[in-house]
Known about the structure:
Elements: E1 15-19, E2 27-31, H1 50-67
Antiparallel strand pairs: 1-2
Amino acid sequence: MKNKLLPCPFCGGDADFYQFANPKNFYYVRCSVCHCGTDGFRLCHMDSTPAENKAANAAAWNRRSAEGGHR
């Protein structure tokens, strides 16, 4: 299932997932327009899957977005 990312709370731009080069399975979300984003994290060093980590980052981005500017 694809994680839906809400628009950027600052500029309304589209957001997308990015993966850190090292370590693997570590993601963050960033706006394609103003480049604001989450710090990025993964749920568990060894046990979490990429899908679980993307879902956790989407939840952090969407929670932040829902509290701020654009909806």
